């Protein structure tokens, strides 16, 4: 058993080395050493400042510094964008140092909402890296989080309920999502949760120095906020419809509260990505496994949905 584990780890290390030495260099060909070193410095600064603020850094450390290309622009529709495949994160110029669009402002000078947005996009970059690494080394067992994500994509996000009119959460329609749509819905839902975790941690501990990881007043308040967020259907994502007719009506489709984040997803994200303590994780699972959480969840993994036979065309 020990030999098999060590062998798998060795294969993964070798594969990651090849990935960083080959695949990651391809998009950077022609990029000046100055540009690369600037990206390395920005990533190092980000990790250092996030650690100083007590924010999650485990998943960020898994991403090579040169994997993500940071750009700043005058965004109007969104606060930030992440472009899969290009490994490119576009942030609002207001988040740059002195508004110059050259480097990120120190995290200590960003608002909690701005850090929430940043972490939302950083999580997209992390998942993008896991997908890229798996594609570059198909013979190596993918990261466990990616394996879990693909399973959830099929059983939780393949068929969902949406809110055609966002303001009317009680009005829902069933949708059978394509592979791209379901992957986007999962990614956005998970990123929403990561951002929510970071924002609430900053709100509850920023000025007090207390930790939500240990039992106490801050953790109690965090648990109360999680209960409210779950009951109100806050922890849900969205996707952009592939069908042109539906996209002409709505650029984004938001999942209904019934298709919100599940207890199993929260547990995996808190344990494997967000470095949550065992006590906080246990209390979160207790909240989400409760029977008084308002809207019943739709399409949980492990449940049969024999009535789902074929995709419904948008009318």
Describe this structure in words.
The chain is mainly alpha-helical. It folds into 2 domains: 13-24 and 35-140, no CATH class; 145-288, no CATH class. 48% of the residues lie in helices and 8% in strands. It has helices at residues 2-23, 33-52, 58-61, 112-136, 144-155, 179-205, 217-231, 244-249, 263-272, 278-288, and strands at residues 69-73, 80-83, 88-92, 159-162, 173-176, 238-239, 253-254. The strands form 3 sheets. A 3-stranded mixed β-sheet has the order 1-3-2, with helices on one face. The chain has a two-stranded antiparallel sheet with strand order 4-5. Strands 6-7 form a two-stranded antiparallel ribbon. The chain starts with a helix and ends in a 27-residue tail after the last helix. Mean pLDDT is 83; it is low at 1-32 and 304-315.
Head-to-tail CA distance between termini: 55 Å
Going across the major beta sheet, what is the strand order?
A: 1-3-2
Uncertain segments are 1-32, 304-315
Question: Beta-strand percentage?
Answer: 5-15%
How many DSSP E strands?
Answer: 7
How many domain modules? Answer: 2
The average pLDDT value, as a whole number, equals: 83
SSE class? mainly alpha
Question: What is the number of helical segments per DSSP (H or I, 4+ residues)?
Answer: 10
- Rg estimate, integer Å: 20 Å
Q: Roughly what percent helix? A: 40-55%
What would you call the shape? globular
Question: Could you state the order of secondary-structure elements as H and E?
Answer: HHHEEEHHEEHHEHEHH
For the sheet with most strands, the description reads:
3 strands, mixed
